[in-house]
């Protein structure tokens, strides 16, 4: 049978990837379609389990503590056990923990379940990033990571809408749907994606080798600064918009999802051909400017416009971080490098609410201008690292 090649436009957007990548892409969307519990954890704990706000905050912090362990542990497993086994095992463990949480009624059981869930729910990320780096050529990695970013946002946007409605019928539905999609993703990976992990040699340095890589550590530090900017959208922005009503934040954030779903696929291929560090730094600047402009926002429309600005910066960053990590990491340590990169996001999730709420208590202007300045600092740091990253990439890829 002769297979006709797709049109050149379509080929430039989505072509050139091996079949296992598309399995991973499809499984990611299925999994994100079922991600309905996490955004509603606070409401679930207070309304369904009758916990006070103080106890709810403690339980959620336990979840954050688990997530700190998640990325380094999953990265180590991806390199030692394999990408496929880590991804599948993380999905199955997430499904089991989701169901256990859904039926837990004691505070002790819920706290234990939340810690375990924090460890396992994002364990797929280092394995997924390592898989893409193994399967896709360096020049196509930004496009591949960008497509995965788009799929995550598409699935999550739909999940947010349907999850809110299903929660009215009972939160247990959300736990079951989330668990089922995790199992489906795990089975799909195990059945349709071959193991891509390079052979582990006795000389492999493990995390010692990762922590000895000063360029990688510097990149992680720059990314941590950026996370403290970007994650304000989920911690302090809702507080800043509280006076406009609870629905205003939801509608304003819908701008973020819509722009990513419709704009990002149009720019993905063009951005992939540009210097990764320059694009990433430009994204950092635009995200910082978008948050700085929040100083002038006082209505739902005004906040929506600032969200539109920093979303454009977020689109620029999509896929670039993963592509840089893949370029910096030796093949046998890709899981650990991805785990360290993911760890910076976990640390950022702990720092951001502490930093942001204290600055907001001083004044909104202090918060948003400080965040904007931090975005500029992150961009300058990324540009300073750009020559070394380019040299490392040439060494890995060759002339």
From TrEMBL:
Compartment annotation: Cell membrane
A Gene Ontology molecular function term of the record: transmembrane transporter activity
Coiled-coil stretches noted in the UniProt entry, renumbered to this chain: none
Domain Major facilitator superfamily (MFS) profile intervals: 20-390
Membrane topology annotation: Multi-pass membrane protein
Signal peptide: none
Keywords per UniProt: Cell membrane, Membrane, Transmembrane, Transmembrane helix, Transport
Main localization (coarse): membrane
Pfam family, one: MFS_1
A single cellular component GO annotation: plasma membrane
Chain segments annotated as transmembrane: 21-45, 51-69, 107-124, 145-167, 173-193, 214-236, 248-266, 278-301, 307-328, 340-360, 366-385
CDD domains, sorted: MFS_MdtH_MDR_like
UniProt-recorded name of the protein: MFS transporter
Species assigned in the record: Acrocarpospora corrugata
């Amino acid at each position: 049978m002769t297979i006709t090649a797709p049109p050149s436009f379509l080929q430039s957007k989505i072509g050139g990837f091996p079949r296992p990548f598309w399995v991973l892409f499809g499984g990611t969307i299925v999994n994100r379609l079922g991600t309905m519990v996490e955004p509603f954890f606070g409401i679930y704990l207070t309304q369904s389990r009758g916990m006070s706000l103080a106890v709810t905050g403690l339980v959620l912090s336990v979840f954050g503590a688990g997530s700190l362990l998640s990325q380094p542990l999953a990265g180590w497993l991806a390199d030692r056990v394999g990408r496929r086994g880590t991804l599948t095992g993380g999905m199955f463990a997430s499904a089991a923990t989701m169901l256990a949480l859904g039926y837990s009624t004691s505070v002790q059981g819920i706290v234990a379940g939340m810690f375990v869930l924090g460890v396992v729910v994002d364990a797929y990320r280092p394995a997924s990033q390592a898989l893409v780096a193994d399967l896709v050529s360096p020049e196509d990695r930004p496009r591949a990571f960008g497509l995965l970013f788009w799929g995550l946002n598409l699935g999550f946007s739909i999940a947010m809408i349907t999850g809110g409605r299903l929660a009215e019928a009972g939160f247990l539905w959300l736990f079951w749907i989330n668990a089922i999609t995790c199992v489906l993703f795990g089975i799909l990976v195990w059945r349709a994606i071959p193991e891509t992990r390079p052979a582990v040699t006795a000389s492999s340095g493990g995390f010692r080798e990762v922590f000895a890589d000063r360029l990688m550590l510097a990149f992680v530090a720059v990314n941590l600064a950026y996370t403290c900017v970007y994650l304000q959208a989920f911690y302090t922005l809702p507080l800043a918009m509280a006076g406009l009503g609870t629905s205003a934040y939801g509608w304003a954030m819908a701008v973020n999802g819509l722009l990513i779903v419709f704009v990002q696929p149009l720019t993905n291929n063009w951005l992939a051909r540009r210097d990764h560090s320059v694009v990433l730094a430009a994204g950092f600047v635009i995200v910082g400017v978008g948050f700085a402009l929040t100083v002038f926002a006082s209505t739902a429309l005004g906040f929506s416009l600032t969200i539109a600005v920093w979303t454009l910066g977020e689109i620029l960053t999509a896929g670039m971080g993963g592509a840089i990590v893949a370029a910096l990491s030796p093949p046998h340590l890709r899981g650990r490098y991805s785990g360290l990169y993911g760890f910076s996001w976990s640390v950022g999730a702990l720092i951001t609410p502490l930093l942001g709420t204290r600055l907001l208590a001083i004044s909104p202007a202090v918060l948003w201008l400080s965040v904007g300045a931090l975005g500029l600092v992150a961009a300058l740091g990324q540009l300073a690292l750009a020559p070394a990253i380019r040299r490392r990439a040439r060494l890995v890829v060759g002339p």
